[in-house]
Amino acid sequence: MTGAAPVDDALWSAIGDPTRRRILDLLLAEGGGTASSLSRELPVTRQAVAKHLDVLDRAGLVRSTTAGRERRCEVDAVQLARAADQLAAVGRTWDRRLQRIKGIAEAIENTRKTDTRS
Question: What is the pTM of this model?
Fold first, then answer.
């Protein structure tokens, strides 16, 4: 992406997994949660949810606080906004590329039409 910040591969790897995206959705909808509360909403074990939360935490997408034996997690709005900005930038880059491809295809088509008339 020319002129834009580089894409954070660790961030995109973390949210590339459908279970982790669902965890983010649940955390956003419920204002936070624990591995236990999230596992009741997902088709995976509490231990699997905890591992997914660790990945999201390492990517900076969630913050956690410990209360007794439970670790409560919340989405880090700043990091999520950063991910959304990166996605928008990638979308704009591909829109420009596709417009260039369209222009090339139209030029080729116009050349073919001109050649067949001659």
Answer: 0.74
Residue 17, domain extent? 9-117
Q: List the CATH number of the domain containing 13.
A: 1.10.10.10
How many domains is the chain built from? Answer: 1
96 vs 87 pLDDT, higher one: 96
Burial class (CB in 10 A: 0-12, 13-18, 19+), 57: middle
Q: Cα 44–38–84 angle (5° rounding)?
A: 100
pLDDT digits 0-9 by tens, 39-88: 999 999 999 999 999 999 999 999 999 988 889 999 999 999 988 898 89
